[in-house]
């Protein structure tokens, strides 16, 4: 009899009401902090609106989008961003995975070395940008140029030469984020069952064979997740560029989409256009992520 | 359970008592918050404001924000309608945006009733207080009047060996340059990378308004302009052959600057000079106290001379610096702010302001011998005044500035030719004016 009665508390709340009472605060917070700004910014992206001016938003249709998509300079920023993402994520992948392979064995002070290697990703990007600014200073006072000076006729313009500046940003981002790739890869490597290697040893398999047919397939789902995170994050590169190459200089050599978006939104207060730009960026990141996720599912399917 | 409840009630009572005490304290001591960029004049103002506190009991706190973030931080506070700042000492270009954006209060009637406008240097009143220009509508009072100028190493310029070598190479005497051609010759002459000595340090940075303020005075002096202030047409004004020549000249100067010069802004040019790396450096005069201070410039504090920015082939123009003092619309202390501004504009206060190192807008004080001889650079500063010019001060100035910063930076980095950069600026500036409705008739 008791089991057929609706569940109520002593004050008469049903289970459903109780569930809602617990869920609603989070839902309201989520709607206010995430969903509403998302919808509001979508609304603004179709309007001429400046947050710094008292005039109300004026509907202009898709003009913000068409202006942005027809602007060759905007495409230039996307190219710069893509160039950065490919270089930085590839470098982080190889260095991070390489370090993980080296750390995936027992040696003295392994814990200390691992902690040391993880330090860069724990630092604030602005702090990283600032001290790399001194290391990569383009005159002989720069630490790197100082050490390279016996081998060079003139100092390298790390942050002043348009063809070198991107390399400087990639170096700094790689220094900072390779440990993240290493950490994920290390987690994957330590989960590979030892008996597989032992069986391969019995069959006298080569080191390359073991890496290609045991290590890589078992670690690749985790590596893909790490790549997904890094690609999404690299696509939004802002802080290091802001500090290291001073707002994406020289010229527009390191001006990423996020850097330009910041200027549109918080320097020019061209809010409507900035919202449109943010949506274009969002669509690209979602599309890129989907490619990764599909590939990840395929890899998992093969495993199964 | 009961003890927990009693504890909670006690905590609540204590918190309320603490908040009430804080509020009461707020009411007892009146205070004003002034926001300005992080530099020496802000320190001088803090020092000067002690007199105001002594007279009125109102405490004054001058908040300093690093230059590259100054505009972003203040404007973000305005967007949030924050009452954090009572008085804002902002750039002249901010006037259009903050008056039309209703972030500054209109001071016209109050100034006409309380301030002797005739005692203020006219062009300073126009540049730092009036918008639209010539309308007689005031949104600020000039606080710091500044100009771009040059410091040079007298020990190098007056060295007999250097003088003879220069005379032999260029056919005229080595002296502070009065034209841009002479400036280039001297910069070239002193460029000796093997000795880590370079000819010139000037602004090429992409941060905030760095390269624009450095280059625009060269552009004007070579015959270029930003556009027609009457009809806001830009094409055919900024992308002329004269402007392209000016940009090529400015790019060419880079070879006589230290290797890191494309990143040079105020701090970097000053550092290059005080480190003994350059023979000449351009900066706003307000930064020069650091040059004559033996603590910050042990190498050449007593060997530095100053000169007015040179003339070009088609005129003589200099970038205006300095800021006006405005009252934030969101301030809860507007009357106190007015009281402070009225006090600040009094002649004795302006005299003290000038003696501390501030660049006074007060006409009489500015023209006095006491002011001209107060520092080694005040005379060159006063001589720069007839040539001052400003960037667009319209509400869209930040967008216009951003386009200039990006394209001029691309030109000096040789990503674009001078003509390409100027054509892009002309196109984008007209797009901005069109979007803002300047061509709607």
Number of helices of chain A: 12
Biggest interface: A-B, 34 and 37 residues
CATH structural class of the largest domain in chain A: Mainly Alpha
Number of domains of chain B: 2
What percent of the residues of chain B sit in helical stretches (DSSP H or I)? Answer: 40-55%
- Order of strands in the sheet with the most strands of chain A? 1-2
Residue windows where pLDDT falls under 50 for at least 5 positions of chain B: none
User: Helices and strands of chain B, in N-to-C order?
Assistant: HEHEHEHHHEHHHEHHHEEEHHHHHEHH
Give me the Rg of chain B, rounded.
24 Å
CATH architecture of the largest domain in chain B: 3-Layer(aba) Sandwich
Q: What structural class do the secondary elements of chain B suggest?
A: alpha/beta
Tell me the structural class of chain A.
mainly alpha
- The rounded Rg of chain A comes to 25 Å
- Could you state the CATH homologous superfamily of the largest domain in chain A? MetI-like
CATH topology name of the largest domain in chain B = D-Maltodextrin-Binding Protein, domain 2
Q: Per the principal axes of the C-alpha atoms, what is the gross shape of chain B?
A: globular
Mean pLDDT of chain B: 92
Task: Give an account of the 3D structure.
The complex is a heterodimer of chains A (304) and B (441). Chain A is 70% helix and 1% strand. Chain A contains twelve helices and two strands. In chain A, strands 1-2 form a two-stranded antiparallel ribbon. In chain A, helix 3 (72-103) crosses helix 7 (165-190) and helix 3 packs antiparallel against helix 9. The longest helix of chain A is centred in the C-terminal third of the chain and has 33 residues, at 271-303. The relative contact order of chain A is 0.13. With 441 residues, chain B is α/β, with parallel strands linked by helices. Chain B has two domains: 27-146 and 321-389, Periplasmic binding protein-like II (D-Maltodextrin-Binding Protein, domain 2); 147-319 and 394-435, Periplasmic binding protein-like II (D-Maltodextrin-Binding Protein, domain 2), CATH 3.40.190.10. Chain B has 19 helices and nine strands. Chain B has helices at 2-28, 40-56, 67-79, 94-100, 108-114, 122-129, 154-157, 160-170, 180-189, 210-222, 241-253, 266-274, 334-344, 347-356, 363-367, 369-372, 378-384, 397-412, 418-435, and strands at 31-37, 59-65, 87-91, 141-153, 198-201, 278-284, 304-308, 318-327, 388-389. In chain B, helix 2 links the parallel strand 1 and strand 2. Chain A binds chain B through residues 48, 51-54, 73, 137-142, 154-155, 157, 159-162, 246-253, 255, 263, 266-270, and chain B through 71-72, 75-76, 78-79, 97, 100-103, 193, 196, 205-207, 258-263, 395, 398-399, 402, 406, 409-416, 424, 435.
């Amino acid at each position: 009899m008791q089991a057929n009665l609706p569940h109520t508390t002593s004050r008469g709340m049903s289970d459903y009401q109780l569930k809602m009472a617990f869920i609603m605060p989070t839902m309201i917070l989520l709607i206010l902090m995430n969903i509403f700004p998302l919808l509001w910014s979508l609304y603004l992206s179709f309007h001429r609106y400046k947050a710094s001016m008292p005039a109300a938003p004026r509907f202009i249709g898709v003009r913000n989008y068409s202006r942005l998509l027809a602007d060759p300079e905007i495409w230039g920023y996307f190219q710069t961003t893509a160039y950065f993402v490919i270089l930085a994520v590839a470098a982080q992948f190889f260095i991070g995975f390489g370090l993980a392979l080296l750390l995936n064995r027992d040696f003295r002070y392994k814990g200390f070395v691992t902690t040391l290697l993880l330090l860069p990703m724990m630092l604030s990007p602005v702090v990283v940008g600032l001290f790399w600014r001194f290391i990569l200073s383009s005159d002989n006072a720069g630490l790197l140029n100082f050490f390279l000076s016996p081998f060079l006729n003139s100092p390298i313009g790390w942050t002043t030469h348009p063809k070198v500046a991107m390399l400087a940003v990639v170096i700094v981002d790689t220094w900072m984020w390779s440990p993240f790739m290493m950490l994920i890869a290390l987690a994957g490597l330590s989960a590979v069952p030892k008996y597989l290697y032992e069986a391969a040893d019995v069959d006298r398999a080569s080191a390359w064979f073991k890496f290609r047919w045991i290590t890589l397939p078992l670690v690749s789902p985790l590596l893909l997740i790490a790549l997904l995170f890094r690609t999404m994050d690299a696509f939004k590169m802002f802080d290091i560029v802001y500090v290291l190459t001073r707002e994406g200089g020289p010229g527009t050599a390191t001006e990423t989409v996020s850097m330009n978006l910041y200027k549109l939104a918080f320097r020019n207060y061209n809010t409507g256009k900035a919202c449109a730009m943010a949506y274009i960026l969002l669509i690209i990141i979602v599309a890129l992520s989907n490619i990764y996720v599909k590939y990840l599912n395929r890899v998992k399917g093969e495993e199964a | 359970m009961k003890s927990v409840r009693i504890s909670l009630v006690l905590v609540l009572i204590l918190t309320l008592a603490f908040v009430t005490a804080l509020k009461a304290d707020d009411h007892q001591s009146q205070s004003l918050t002034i926001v300005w960029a992080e530099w020496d004049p802000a320190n001088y103002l803090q020092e000067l404001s002690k007199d105001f506190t002594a007279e009125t009991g109102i405490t004054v706190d001058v908040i300093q924000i690093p230059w590259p973030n100054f505009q972003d931080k203040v404007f973000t506070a305005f967007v949030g309608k924050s009452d954090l700042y009572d008085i804002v000492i902002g750039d002249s270009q901010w006037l259009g945006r903050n008056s039309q954006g209703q972030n500054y209060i209109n001071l016209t009637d109050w100034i006409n009733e309380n301030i002797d406008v005739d005692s203020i240097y006219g062009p300073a009143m126009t540049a730092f207080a009036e918008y639209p220009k010539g309308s007689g509508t005031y949104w600020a009072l000039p606080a710091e009047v500044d100009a771009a100028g040059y410091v040079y190493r007298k020990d190098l310029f007056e060295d007999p060996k250097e003088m003879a070598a220069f005379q032999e190479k260029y056919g005229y005497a080595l002296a502070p340059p009065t034209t841009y051609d002479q400036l280039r010759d001297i910069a070239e002459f002193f460029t000796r990378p093997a000795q880590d000595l370079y000819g010139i340090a000037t602004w090429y940075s992409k941060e905030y308004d760095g390269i624009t303020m450095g280059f625009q005075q060269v552009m004007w002096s070579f015959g270029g302009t930003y556009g027609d202030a009457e009809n806001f047409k830009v094409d055919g004004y900024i992308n002329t052959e004269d402007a392209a020549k000016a940009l090529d000249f400015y790019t060419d100067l880079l070879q006589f600057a230290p290797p890191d010069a494309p990143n040079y802004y105020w701090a970097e040019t000053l550092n290059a000079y005080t480190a003994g790396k350059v023979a000449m450096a351009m900066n706003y005069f307000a930064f020069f106290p650091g040059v004559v201070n033996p603590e910050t410039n042990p190498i050449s504090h007593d060997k530095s001379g100053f000169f007015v920015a040179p003339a070009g082939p088609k005129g003589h123009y200099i970038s205006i610096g300095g800021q006006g003092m405005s009252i934030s619309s969101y301030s809860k202390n507007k009357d106190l702010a007015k009281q402070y501004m009225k006090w600040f504009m009094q002649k004795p206060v302006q005299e003290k302001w000038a003696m501390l190192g501030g660049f006074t807008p007060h006409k009489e004080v500015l023209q006095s011998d006491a002011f001209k001889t107060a520092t080694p650079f005040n005379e060159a500063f006063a001589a720069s005044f007839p040539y001052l010019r400003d960037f667009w001060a319209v509400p869209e100035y930040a967008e216009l500035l951003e386009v200039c910063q990006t394209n001029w930076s691309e030109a000096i980095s040789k990503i674009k030719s001078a003509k390409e950069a100027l054509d892009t600026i002309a196109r984008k500036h007209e797009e901005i004016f069109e979007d803002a409705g300047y061509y709607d008739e």
